[in-house]
Design a protein that fits this description.
Blueprint (H helix, E strand, L loop, with lengths): L1 H19 L6 H11 L2 H10 L4 H6 L6
Helix pairs in contact: 1-2, 1-3, 2-3
């Protein structure tokens, strides 16, 4: 019973890590899968060290008229 709860908590943390990585080049699914194989804590550190995707930065640039 406690193993099942631990697995569910681990998957929830992997989903949250995937949501954090949704604006990156790998996207949600890539970040989610990587956090399943590596721990979500390591993936959060990797996400903090990498920059957002170029298409996300392009959308957030101010419009010049």
């Amino acid at each position: 019973m406690t193993v099942a709860i631990a697995v569910i908590i681990y998957i929830v943390f992997c989903i949250l890590t995937g949501l954090c990585g949704s604006q990156r080049r790998m996207g949600f699914f890539g970040t989610f899968i990587m956090s399943l194989f590596i721990t979500p804590i390591v993936m959060i550190i990797v996400l903090k060290l990498t920059a957002p995707s170029e298409r996300v930065e392009w959308r957030h640039r101010p419009q010049s008229d």
